[in-house]
Amino acid sequence: MKGKVEQYLHDKIKQDGCIHITLVDPDKSSGYDCASIAREAEKGGTAIIMVGGSTLAATQDLDDAVLRIKKEVDIPVILFPNGPMGISRHADAIWFMSLLNSQNTYYLIDAHVISAPLIKKLGLEAIPMGYIIAGEGCVAGHIGQARLISYKHPQLAVGYSLAAETFGMKFVYLEGGSGASKPIPPEMISAVKKNLSIHLIVGGGIRNPEAAKAASVAGADIIVTGTLVEEEAQVQEKISAIVSAIKKSV
Ligand code: 1GP
Questions:
Q1: pTM score above 0.70
Q2: pLDDT tens across 190-221, in order?
Q3: Which of 206, 223, 232 for mutating ligand 1's site (highest number of atoms within 8 Å of CB)?
Q4: Domain at 4-246, CATH from 1.10.3470.10, 3.40.190.10, 3.20.20.390, 3.30.2130.30
Q5: Is the C-beta atom of 144 inside 6 A of ligand 1?
């Protein structure tokens, strides 16, 4: 049986064709700032607020950010954990994500062995997701010790994505790295999408409606942006432009 947040994601994708997630990182913005970004992003039409970051070390900062965000928005808040310290009891759900192209078993399974009992104890909705880092990979690629997939080799991204689907994961996240100079190319997205039956999330380096639209047209079901609104200027306008660009007539 699907949990509430997973069902919401499926329904929203069915309705809009492609949806937007706003990433806020309590390691880059204060809890107060995360909450004000989230409030404006919701007004701009983002579907969900995702909270986390590769270098997050203080669960207190995460808890503070999630509590503040929950006061400001009605849309669900999902955790994007870098390990057990990325868990907050106050969120609506957590991506139970394995970094499939990591060279370090910690990011593949060890962190999950520590996290799963706590997630169960808290009753947090866990949504299984295969996380794949390509291109520059940025901080996520470095911390996660990923064997980065070159944009020249989309067939590798296809293989990892199909492995995720075959394992029974519900989503695949193709990540170019937060702040990447080049987002995941449409050729890689379409190669993955052609072969995949589960939903595809794409993020990293998407900074304008054109890039978001290109990813959506190529087959992304969910577009994630973070850096775009970190400075907090015109958040609603920026998100609204991306949300309108990615909608597909379904
Ligand atoms: C990071 O893909 C997300 O996990 C967001 O990337 O910060 O480049 O938007 P940006």
A1: yes
A2: 999 999 999 999 999 999 999 999 999 999 99
A3: 206
A4: 3.20.20.390
A5: no
